[in-house]
Design goal:
One of its GO terms (molecular function) is kinase activity. The chain is built from 20 helices and 23 strands. The chain has a 7-stranded mixed beta sheet. The chain has a 7-stranded mixed beta sheet with strand order 10-9-8-13-16-14-15, with helices on one face. A 5-stranded mixed beta sheet has the order 18-20-21-23-22. A hairpin with a 5-residue loop joins strand 3 and strand 4. The longest helix is centred in the C-terminal third of the chain and has 54 residues.
Length: about 700
């Protein structure tokens, strides 16, 4: 582009001119759909200090002919209409961050929400009145916009009603939209109804200063269930309030229906039941077992209030539900998810079916078991606008700008959700135990046993019976072999993560010590690295059950964790060196099981921020018929009932990290070796040595018991 040159005449002054069509384009491009257009108009009612906003859909001859949005706010004077409402992109609201009349901070910051009416229809009538001015009526015919040569040619009729026709006693705005641009069908209308009614949080206490009501002269909205209709069909309820770096309120409640009469009672968990570490808001880091603290004030997010109800749609439980099942599932399909509200008004489009903003459904796909999905939850996140200015809404009104503050917000909500879900998992496991048939735990074996019983009873011919039973016995044996392989593979996979973590730490230290020419430390670390690799190799080798000393596997496991014990300042109390007790066990499987238990103990000691950390590994004959390795620590103890903890996908770890399979796989492997894994709930059941009792190493006591005799 050429800007220079010699001028023979003085430059002339020219101006930009704006095509009238720019108004049309702004309305079409900035407002995505009819729901958002209505939402923007409702926002204007909120900004005008309205207590109520009524959205009415009027039908003529079964066709929607008119949409009316009416509120009881402070209205607009003629000056406001001419200098603000008819001026596109005004920053009037931005200059007045707090409206004196009701103390609200405005929602419609961009000054473009009024263009949403153009998205809805071509004929607009606006009627408004303030307490100190006459009633004003404004008539806009958008079709005239296209024939106007300039924006000043686009005339709008303004009438002053000296005697009010609409607002005879109060103030407000009434907006009538006619000659609608969309042919609204039943499905679309019901969807818009859902969107409008979702503007107010279903978890509000009923004292909200702003309420949106949907009405119609047609029965189009009849039969639509609302939140109160379906709330009683939920089983699990959660509430959490976060401020700064801490959780300041928490309540989880399990409310079984009366029909679930096998359940003795419900359950309540509050903040007082948490260990201190759980009360700190955190995100999962990139490294194994790493957590990053979140500060809501630093991110300019302010206080977050989170509420959720969770349903159980598993067939065995859903059969007891006290609501019409098809209607409930449809409601959850349309309304499931977690929505965001700021000052009581919804922020779109969080909680919509195509916006899995918390990655809830993604996690369910990535990890089987232990997670919820959007179609079984209804939740809300409430923010205060004056505190959450770090969260900035996008121009197109579809959520917040995705910056650091936003990602911290998402992680904080995700953490609150994980705390509720882990409690729900415990109660769901209880229901599964009580109401699901035993075959759900061992489905193939249960089915085979049923078939064998039928064969024994029904088939009379001995030869036929013998032949059928032979095949069934072979299937049974093959299934057990496959299951054994899968359990071993799962165990190897679980321990691989542990070993890789140890190796990475050692290699990092080794590299550092070599760089500093520290020969002594380099040699020591090299030996530790060799021991870990040798120990993991022992886990992978196929081994048979045979009589052997148990101190052998204890030595291997302690060697594997030796560097980590130093790193986390954990002291080991053990009598393994002085013991010659023998039992029947498979070496590789036993090393894997003990590795898993010790790894869990290390995690909880570190997570609970204990200053003096101890793990006890104690060999004893006290459990009849077995030689037992008793593992305990001085951490927070077990947070789950033992019968729940050994089920798959059960964990008390924050943010639901890990697979939730560790204890389940360990229990299965102990059973395969004819041993047992038990939780000791009373420390006096074991005659612990003095150092264990003196240091309070009596939490999370697990006994790995191996048979004395071959079985």
């Amino acid at each position: 582009m050429y800007w220079g040159g010699n001028y023979t005449k003085s430059p002339m002054q020219v101006n930009f001119s704006i095509s009238p069509r720019i108004l049309s384009h702004l309305g079409e491009d900035l407002i995505k759909n009819e729901s958002i257009a209505l939402f923007e108009l409702i926002k204007n009612s909120y900004d005008a200090c309205a207590k109520h906003c009524i959205v009415d859909f009027h039908f003529e001859d079964l066709n929607l002919s008119r949409i009316t949005i009416e509120d009881d706010g402070f209205g607009m004077s003629r000056d406001t209409i001419e200098q603000v409402w008819l001026v596109v992109g005004t920053d009037n609201k931005k200059k007045n961050l707090i409206l004196n009349e009701c103390g609200r901070i405005p929602l419609g910051e961009k000054g473009i929400g009024r263009l949403g009416v153009h998205k809805l229809g071509d004929k607009i009538t606006l009627i408004t009145k303030t307490k100190d001015s006459t009633e004003i009526e404004l008539r806009i015919d958008w079709t005239k916009l296209y024939s106007a040569k300039s924006i000043t040619d686009f005339a709008i009729d303004l009438i002053e009603n000296t005697i009010p026709k609409t607002f005879t006693t109060g103030t407000g705005v009434k907006l009538i939209v006619e000659r609608l641009k969309t042919n609204w069908d039943r499905r679309q209308l019901r969807e818009v109804h859902r969107n409008i009614t979702s503007l107010n949080s279903p978890f509000s206490d009923g004292n909200d200063s702003f309420n949106v009501i949907v009405s119609s002269n047609n029965n189009i909205f009849e039969g639509l269930p609302d939140f109160e209709d379906i709330k009683s069909s939920a089983l699990y309820f959660g509430h959490c309030k976060m401020r700064g770096t801490e959780i300041v309120e928490f309540k989880y409640e399990f409310k079984p229906w009366e029909k679930l009469d096998k359940v003795d009672q419900g359950r309540i968990v509050t903040l007082q039941d948490f260990i201190e570490a759980d009360k700190t808001i955190k995100a999962v880091g990139d490294k194994r077992d790493e957590f990053i603290p979140i500060n809501l004030d630093k991110s300019k997010i302010g206080e977050i209030e989170f509420d959720i109800i969770i349903f159980d749609t598993d067939a065995q439980i859903f059969n007891f539900v006290n609501t019409e099942k098809t209607a409930l599932k449809k409601y959850l399909s349309e309304n499931g998810g977690i929505r965001v509200y700021r000052d009581g008004v919804r922020v779109y489009n969080y909680g919509e079916r195509d916006n899995d903003w918390l990655g809830i459904d993604l996690r369910r796909v990535q990890r089987v078991g232990g997670n919820v999905s959007n179609n079984i939850i209804v939740g809300s996140v409430r923010l205060k606008r004056a505190e959450s200015f770090g969260l900035v809404e996008k121009t197109n009104r579809e959520g917040f700008i995705e910056d650091d503050s936003y990602f911290n917000f998402v992680q904080a909500v995700d953490y609150a959700l994980s705390l509720v879900v882990r409690e729900r998992n415990q109660d769901k496991a209880l229901l599964s135990t009580l109401y699901k048939k035993h075959r759900a735990i061992e489905p193939v074996l249960s089915d085979l046993n049923d078939v064998i019983n039928i064969v024994e009873e029904k088939i009379r011919e001995p030869e036929v019976k013998q032949e059928v039973l032979k095949y069934l016995s072979r299937i049974n044996e093959q299934y057990r072999e496959v299951k054994d392989v899968l359990i071993k593979s799962a165990n190897a996979g679980l321990n691989l993560g542990i070993v890789i973590h140890e190796i990475e730490k050692l290699i990092s230290e080794l590299t550092d010590s070599i760089g500093k020419n520290d020969k002594e430390k380099s040699t020591r670390l090299s030996l530790s690295l060799e021991k870990i690799i040798r120990g993991y190799s022992a886990m992978l080798k196929k081994s048979d059950i045979k009589l052997n000393k148990l101190n052998k596997i204890i030595e291997i496991v302690l060697d594997n964790f030796s560097y980590r014990f130093i790193d986390h300042e954990i002291s080991i109390i053990s009598n393994w060196k002085d013991s010659n007790l023998e039992a029947y066990y498979a070496e590789s499987e036993s090393i894997s099981v003990l590795t898993n238990i010790v790894d869990n103990a290390i995690f909880w000691l570190k997570y609970a921020r204990k200053e003096d950390r101890f793990i006890s590994i104690y060999l004893t004959e006290e459990i009849s018929g077995f030689i037992s390795i008793i593992i305990s620590d001085n951490g927070p103890g077990f947070g789950l009932p033992f019968d729940v903890a050994i089920q798959p996908f059960q964990t008390k770890k924050p943010s639901n990290i890990g697979s939730g399979l560790g204890l389940h796989v360990a229990n299965e492997m102990m059973k395969a070796m004819k041993g047992q894994l038990t939780l000791i709930t009373d420390e006096n059941d074991i005659d612990f040595p003095d150092p264990v009792r003196k240091n309070g190493v009596n939490k999370a006591i697990i006994a790995l018991s191996f048979p004395k005799e071959k079985k």
